[in-house]
Each structure stands twice: as structure tokens, then as C-alpha cells.
Amino acid sequence: MPTPLPALQTELDPRLDDAIARLTGHLRDGDHPDPVVSVWLGDLDGRSRYERSSLAPHYAASTMKLPLVIAAFRRVARGEIDLAAPVQVTATFASVLDGSPFSLDESEDQDPQTWGAVGATRTVLELAEAAITQSSNIATNLLIDVVGLGEVAEVLRIVGCSPATVVARGIEDAVARQAGITNTVTAADLGLVMAAVGRREQALGGEAVLGPVEELLSRQVHVDQVPAGLPTGTPTASKSGWIPGVSHDVALVRPVGEDPFVLAVCTTVDLDETSAAALVAEVAREVWAAEHPAGEGQA
């Protein structure tokens, strides 16, 4: 049974204080900015059970791919996009600021299949699959051109995200970034988006839209953050993101025999990729332990 809300706050605050201090204490020497660790734990109806700095804005990194793919499947459900439609694969895109060209770097991506198709085509479905399961940057930018940033903004509006969560440009659009156009997110808003997926929010298109999205999320290969902190074999559907200094994950968790929940963790902290992922995983581990006293539900 879930821990009553006031008790959960009392239980988790010191647990997370200790975990964060243990994993980031070596940074507190005046040469590093203070770590910002944000947590949102909630039910599929969007009701929060625990929050820690959950409204703090963070650079979104690859978590922006979650509302993008929801927007893509909404357009598919409306008959505006065909999942089988071919999309010309290119690594050069137009800046949202002024239309000037910019290019992605294959060495900084994780999707050899889409990069191998440059000059050829991939389907909309293949791009959505790569954007989520491989966290592909090239597939993401191609999908933005197909779907449109306005459609992504509409997903965020319907879910009820705050103004702090914005998807305003593609990946590596340096001209736009230098002009202050960026992608930001809060843990609370990520939690709301994922909760909407889990409950099959009708305003987003229900099962026809969100069923396929959860299926993609359940196949994500980058599971070293929230899923790594849960008991082995716990079913999750998640989307993570990492760049130097930023590591986030939001997971829809469906433990066998228990109510599903959503856990979003956003961190802005000066750690390498492995250490940052370990911090997020430790937060998830402490959340699970607080909800399951004396090891109840542990694998």
C-alpha cells in the first residue's frame, strides 16, 4: 500500500538529502554550482504524492522527445500523417530563428540506422521509434519537421504544463540557442505528461494515440536511470535525457500487483554521465524503499 502523503514527505526528505549529499558532496568546494535535484512522484490521475523542487526549470535534453512523439501520433490519429509515409533523411536543418542551415554531428548521436539512411528515406514510424528507443537526435529533428513545434506545444497545453516547460527548437540549433530559444522542462510537468500517457488521456486521443507511445517507451534502451533504481524486472516505460551537467528521466512504472505510478527526476549537476545516471537511479531506489518499508515488494 502507498505510504500516506505526509508520512512519505517525512520519510523521503532526509533519505534524498543523504543520497544527494553522498553522491555530490565532492562538488561542494566553491568551484561548482549547487546541484539542483527535482523529483515528482504521482499517480496516473496527475495527483502528486511527493515533490522536491519539482517546479525548478532544467534544460530539457532528450526528454523533449516525449511530447514530440505524442504529437506525432495525435496527427496520425487525425489522419494528417501516415506512419508509413517516407521522410527524406538529411542531417541539415533550418534554424527556427532565421531559417539558416545547421547540421548535426553523427559522432554525437546514438542511431547508426537513421544516419545510414542519409540521402534515402525512413518512415514516420521508424523516426518515432528511433527518437524514443535510441534517443536519436537526427530522427528527432526530422520528426519535428514533419509534426511541427506548434503541435508539441498543444500537447503540453492540454496536459496542463507550466510555462516553464517549452519545446521551442530542434536539437543543436545553435543560432536559436544563442538567441535564447531553448527547450526547458520541470519534473512536475514531465510527470504530468507521462501520467497522461499512462491513463490514456482522452483529450490527447486516448488509446489510439497513447497506447503506441507507451509501447515505444517500454522499449527504450537507455534504462540506467529510474529503471535501474527499481527492483529487477519492474515494468517501466520511460524517457531519459543526458548532456554534460544535466541528467533526467521520467518513468511510467507498472509494478505487478500494485497501482501504477509516475516518477520524474531532473538533475542539473556537474557530474559525468555515469555518475549522473547513478544519482537518478539512487533517487528512484530511495523512493521505492520509502513506499515499501522493510523491503516489501523488493525483487
Offer a concise description of the structure:
This protein has helices at 5-24, 65-77, 112-115, 124-134, 137-147, 149-159, 174-178, 187-199, 206-217, 273-291; strands spanning 36-42, 48-52, 58-59, 86-88, 92-94, 101-103, 121-123, 166-167, 183-185, 236-243, 246-253, 261-268. The protein is an alpha+beta fold.
Describe this structure as you would to a colleague.
The protein is an alpha+beta fold. It has helices at residues 5-24, 65-77, 112-115, 124-134, 137-147, 149-159, 174-178, 187-199, 206-217, 273-291; strands at 36-42, 48-52, 58-59, 86-88, 92-94, 101-103, 121-123, 166-167, 183-185, 236-243, 246-253, 261-268. The longest helix is centred in the first third of the chain and has 20 residues, at 5-24.
Task: Tell me the number of strands.
Answer: 12
Major beta sheet summary: 5 strands, antiparallel
**Outline:** globular
Give the percentage of residues in beta strands.
15-25%
Mean pLDDT: 94
Percent helix range: 25-40%
Can you list the strand order of the major beta sheet? 2-1-12-11-10
What secondary-structure arrangement, pairings included, does this model have?
Blueprint: H1 5-24, E1 36-42, E2 48-52, E3 58-59, H2 65-77, E4 86-88, E5 92-94, E6 101-103, H3 112-115, E7 121-123, H4 124-134, H5 137-147, H6 149-159, E8 166-167, H7 174-178, E9 183-185, H8 187-199, H9 206-217, E10 236-243, E11 246-253, E12 261-268, H10 273-291
Antiparallel strand pairs: 1-2, 1-12, 3-9, 4-7, 5-6, 8-9, 10-11, 11-12
Helix pairs in contact: 1-10, 2-4, 2-5, 2-6, 2-9, 4-5, 8-9
